[in-house]
Amino acid sequence: MTRETARRLVLATGHFFLVVVVAVLFNFLVEVSIPHGTPNRFPMTYLLELYVKGIIDPRAQRVIAAALPWTLALLIPATLIAFAIGTLVGAYLGRRGNAGRTTSLVLPIIVLASIPAFLIGMCLTSVFAVTLHWLPGAAAFTPSLLFDQDRLGTLGDLGIHAILPMCTIALAGIGLFAVAMRGTVTMQVADDHTVFAESLGLSSRTLFWSHLVRPSLLPQVTGLGLALALLVTGSILVEANFNYPGLGYILYRAIIGDDLVMMRSVTFVLIVGLAFTLAVVEFLYPWIDPRVRTTETR
To answer: CATH assignment of 3-35+42-292?
Structure first.
């Protein structure tokens, strides 16, 4: 491990713990500031101790441990698909500008980016589950499924049930990433390095990937960490809509049942996950774009 890599790792780790601590304290202060029917006579340190004990509650840990794999299996592929497709579509639209048929493609992307994920899920369910009967509209697996006897059939059943919620999250993210990438590439097209590279007679493929897409990846990857928060928030209602047994569905049931301990625990896991994603993105910055690498003092 080089000195620069170690420095970036320490910096990303410090930012991770800082984000977690600040977010937990902010949630705690918001909770204790809510007015109650009776005045609060307990000291703040005692309330903070109760809050931390609620986060590490054994019952909540067991429920979260069972729900977390479902959320990861749904959210990670959907986010990567949305990032890849949205980045490519946005780069193409930004490269083409307002020429030809590109203008007619911009409006659907903007509309898609403005529609909440749960509305997209309701539309997909209405079309593919209710009207066409092509896909299941709820649950993560068939109730009569035998997990231990037919592994291939189990994977197929889980995949079929995950298509609609995964497509819902992916479609909601494609619009966000496409709009962001289009704006970044549009600015890169007019930059001096792009004009100079084009004057050298480079091929369109080299110009597109090396001088437009790669310089635009840094803000796009930054947006990945920020958009993940929106996708996670949207996945809560998506999982509730599809009765998918992930963290979003657990949080939805906790809110309905007024289970404060479960809400604290799930919120804490979401905070840790988002902080970890931002830390990983920050650590990978130098490999995405060498311009952010720090040089040693001469």
So the answer is: 1.10.3720.10
